[in-house]
Amino acid sequence: MDRKPEEMTNPTNDTISPPHLTYSRRRVRTGLSVTLLGFVIFLIGIRPDVFGLDRSPVIGFVQVAVFIIGLAFLCIGGYISLMALWKYETPSIIADFGVRVVASGFVICVVTGMADVFGFGTDPLPSVPYFGPLQALGVQLGQYVIAIGMLMLIPYHRYMKKNQ
Fold first, then answer.
1. Mean pLDDT value across the chain
2. Which of 55, 82, 84, 111 is most buried by a 10 A CB count?
């Protein structure tokens, strides 16, 4: 590899990462792209009227399924982006726990969001599944757990070394 020194530190050249960066730009961009896609899908599920897709005054099964799929993309994209920051290091035990906390939060969201479909919600089948206030609270709790898990994935030790 014959690289010129100015190519290695040129921030406009996307194919070559500067040597002082300890993360993969490509993985970070991929993760952020997946996160953005997940956010759009999540918005379509939560507020379809913004996109002109609202067909019902209540939040039903399809909307819940769509925003859970969007939330899955959000979790996967966040995981890819934050794990890219650990490029040359093994993740800490806190980061390993963070992955599991994110997964647990997602499971909380799926179970509480689909409670009626699974048969233990306030309106079990065969009635029309309805996304009620208790389910909304459960999904919010799951999203808080996901956020805590994402915070656990950040490599804080790098920033602590620089500030000492």
1. 81
2. 82
